[in-house]
Known about the structure:
Blueprint: H1 2-57, H2 62-79, H3 89-97, H4 101-105, H5 110-125, H6 133-147, H7 155-171, H8 174-186, H9 194-212, H10 233-257, H11 262-269, H12 271-289, H13 298-307, H14 315-328, H15 336-351, H16 359-375, H17 378-389, H18 395-412, H19 417-429
Helix pairs in contact: 1-5, 1-6, 1-7, 1-9, 2-5, 2-12, 3-7, 3-19, 5-6, 6-7, 7-8, 7-9, 8-17, 10-14, 10-15, 10-16, 10-18, 10-19, 12-14, 14-15, 15-16, 16-17, 16-18, 17-18
Amino acid sequence: xxxxxxxxxxxxxxxxxxxxxxxxxxxxxxxxxxxxxxxxxxxxxxxxxxxxxxxxxxxxxxxxxxxxxxxxxxxxxxxxxxxxxxxxxxxxxxxxxxxxxxxxxxxxxxxxxxxxxxxxxxxxxxxxxxxxxxxxxxxxxxxxxxxxxxxxxxxxxxxxxxxxxxxxxxxxxxxxxxxxxxxxxxxxxxxxxxxxxxxxxxxxxxxxxxxxxxxxxxxxxxxxxxxxxxxxxxxxxxxxxxxxxxxxxxxxxxxxxxxxxxxxxxxxxxxxxxxxxxxxxxxxxxxxxxxxxxxxxxxxxxxxxxxxxxxxxxxxxxxxxxxxxxxxxxxxxxxxxxxxxxxxxxxxxxxxxxxxxxxxxxxxxxxxxxxxxxxxxxxxxxxxxxxxxxxxxxxxxxxxxxxxxxxxxxxxxxxxxxxxxxxxxxxxxxxxxxxxxxxxxx
Length: 442
């Protein structure tokens, strides 16, 4: 009678030990992702400051720095860090859908995470209109993947947790991280791993708070739509932001898939020259804008929201162009912050149509509308904008604008940018390493 009891105890101990080991991986991974996100944020600020110092010496230096920087970044991506191009979120989504360990490692690994961070910072140093939040998602997924090598069966959940923790730590928005994991990364609520994912997000969030302090990404904004006429800005921002976001997504997806005409074959055959042309285009956009559209766009939007001052009339359009050129160039860099900046520019322009309307409130509507139009994840869009501005009085109009923008965007682009690009990464990563694969620009 003693032996069977001892066997049950051993089995129970083994099962309990495995459960705690799994929880420890998620929590330790969340801490590591939080630390990496804070480090990338700090270094990104330094990179943009260094670029600003260059502009202070000669604003026309960007005509050489941006094109040559784009070429070097694209070259290093192709030669040393394949699958590190673009935002990194499509790679993380694709890695979840793959079942082969080696195929996943081509999309999320410590090597790619290191290259992603270095080249994203290099892009900001050269004036590229890119963000750091999308790259943080791929970095987070890569860290979790590396920690979970001992348990391949759990890797899809770990990749999801790393991506969600990356968003939470990058923006200091824990709720948005969870919503992003459910709506965008998995497109479903996974009850078996939900508590572990939340644990990873909490660990990443607490690490970010410990290292960077508690803050609202775009500062605090208490403005809301007061008059009934101001609510007309909700559908207007939703339609214009959705159309612009859908157009951006359609261009990036089309460039990633490639064209079969002679121009498309030339772009595919000469990726470095194409990166040079994109860098030059970004530099020209920057000069025309008065040096306002380089980098993430964070400082310009935060200043406008905090002081209630409108952005320049051409800011939204030029930021959209610069972000498009950076996204299709093949260099690493995200579109989260630049998309929010484009939306803020659109909202600032629309606010001019409403006399005495609260500028900050309509800028928020533009931000959520354009972002929802790009990613086609309306819940993530309004949650992340609400958390980033600490403005809960705008929840209802932000929800409405996001839903309108989502519906409008789908009329222009049938699928969200991240999942559309993820299909290409799934196909390429599933091929043997020596098989020929078309290059993707994002």
